[in-house]
Input
Amino acid sequence: MEDIYTNNEEEFNIGEIFFKYLIFWKWFVLCGIISLVAAFFYLRYTSKVYQTSVKIKILDNSKGGSPMPEISKLFGNSSVNLDNEMEVLKSHRLIERVVADLDLNTSYYSVGNVINNELWEEVPFEVEWRGSADSSKDNSIRFYLKFQEDGYFFGDEMDPSGSLCKYGQNYSIRGNQFLVKLNMDFEEIDENISYHVVRSKSSDVVGRLSKAINVKVSGGSEVLILTLAGTNTSKSEDILNAIIEKFNEDGVKDRQLVSQRTIDFVSERFVYLSYELDSIENKKESFKKTNDLSYLEADASQTASEKGIAESEYFAVQTQLSLSNLIEETLKKDKGFSLLPSFGVENAKINALIEEYNRAVLQQSKLMVSAGEGNPVVLELTNQLAELKDNILSSIDVLQEQLSVTLEKIDKLKTEVTQVFRKIPGKEKILRAIERQQTIKESLYLFLLQKREEASVSKAITSPSIKVVDYAITNPLPISPKSLVLYTIALTIGLLVPFGVVFLILMLDTKIHGKQDFEKYSSKIPVVAEIPFIQEDNRIIKENDRSILAEAFRILRTNVIYLLPLDTGATAKVIYTSSSIKGEGKTFVSLNLALTYASLGKKTLILGADLRNPQIHKYFNMDKGRLGLSNFLYDVNVDWKTLVKPSLMDNEYFDVILAGAVPPNPAELLSNGRFEILLNLLKTEYDYIIVDTAPTILVTDTLLISQLADVTVYVTRADHTDKKLLTYSKELDEKGKMKNMAYVINNVGGVNAYGYSYGYGYGYSYGYNYNYGYGYGYGEDNKKVKTSTFKRLLKKWIS
Output
């Protein structure tokens, strides 16, 4: 069988969903009011928690130190590490000092009717404990005090009782001694107020306070914000101010300790540095003496000058030697007498001989031109030139020997000077290393001396660790409970609870309620009318009736007319009314539909064809066993006209044929052919024949005669018919078992309905009990269903 839930996809309709929940507005209003009232009382009797904050700027006291990066690391960083400072602010060591100074181990409360209010500055008395708070075996010691003019009572219970205790005397509770002193700032103590005193271990108080304090950085600055939430603003402010005070003292002491350690360290280093400086100076002195050094730069300059002079002299001698060799070579190659070049040899004798030789050569050349080679003067000049040539060569030999000796001496001197010069960088390197060590030690000595003086000054005048930007300030608006947020949450919960209940109800609801259900699950079969629920017992429409019920049946009448075929081949139109199960109101629909046709002046007959459970006779206060359809079907001698009850309901156009006595075999009677004969006879007398048939789901009576109908009006009942039954009726139509079928929704907006409908009320219900059994003797199909107390209350609220 085709599943109605898989073949018909529900479309999301926000308007429909809205109206589903809108009808429960009283539930939503009631739960919303209850939630808001509960929130009001919660706010009224809950201690408000306020947030207190303080702002401090962490000062960087390490700035302005030595330019030597390696040494400066010994004395502090160049920037503030805010993460470290935040951890110090929440450290147990610091919090313990605050707890001890403010005596936070002991808390005082004034006892109220609902809540106890914590006291701080306004405490009219003080409890002094004789012993450490951590010496108690209990996590906390609690007791109550009530004061009188001459003493006080104390005890573990809310109402202290017992003997009167005197002020200034020691008493004990669970092994812990204490002394109660009156605060002289208060003139008197209210005797009607009880006070609650709680003594906690220091470790517990420190742990709770450390967790309660929140420290964060303000933006990208060096400002820290400390916050603390508490019910007593004065106490929170005092705690935060005490924390920053102790933090500042702690930082000052730390820096003073660093200064003292610096002084001690520098003093120890001075002894070692003095010894090292003496050793380096002695080493420098010994090196200078050994290497004949006075001033390294002057010694190097002098050596370089001597080296330059030697090289210059060596080059000059070398040049003269080369010139003499050139002159000698020129003379030896010349077979005759040619002019000699003047090379500038630094020898006067050779230069004079060359000059005399060149004059003789010029004179010989002139005479040879004028006198010839055989001239005695020319011959004499030739002899003279030969002699001069020999003299020049001899002089050059002597000069060359002299220059060679000189060159050897200069070369030896140059070698010695070069060796001395080459040793200068090594000596300079060694001396520079010695001087560098001396400079480092001297710089370190002076630096440590400076630091010792700075540390001495810093110890004498230590700057604060922090700058207080804002002392403790409490926000006047509480952070908990927040009224607006709480009311919003309460209202949300107040709306969600009924929403969840309604959602569960609607989710579990399987009944049909109106036309929209049919459009979703069986859209091919039309819904011709929605019959509203009428509270009155007598729900039969009257002549000229203008009620909502009458209008609904007129709509049904009109829509059925449109469903009738244009030409059926007979005068009368046969209209069946049927349903899936009992109790859906088919007889009620049949009777009123017939009356609407009769009101038009149409001859109308209602025929009771529900042989198993006839109901029509009840509407006319007739006996169940009177002659009717079953008699005609069983006995061929029965005249159908004797079965007609004419002009009932004071309407001459309205006739009735009852079902008759309940037979043992209704299916066989309906299938013997007599029913069709009856319909043919009736068609000659009436315009409309309304046949009230049996339910279809468990009996086949209606299906045996279904093809004789022109229109089948299939009655369903809002808040009673299960949606799954639509699958069955849809299958009857698809397989042609029911002819020209159309739905009618009965009892819309009925006793168990809650919802909104187009015209008559679109309803939703749940938990409507019925069974699918059908047989002899069941009750009226339109009788009221017994409802539970919850449903009656539900109906009352939504009506």
User: Anything to note?
Assistant: The longest helix spans residues 376-460. The chain has four domains: 4-46+481-508, 51-245, 296-460, 515-798. Confidence is low (pLDDT under 50) at residues 1-10, 63-78, 751-791, 793-799. Residues 296-460 form one domain.
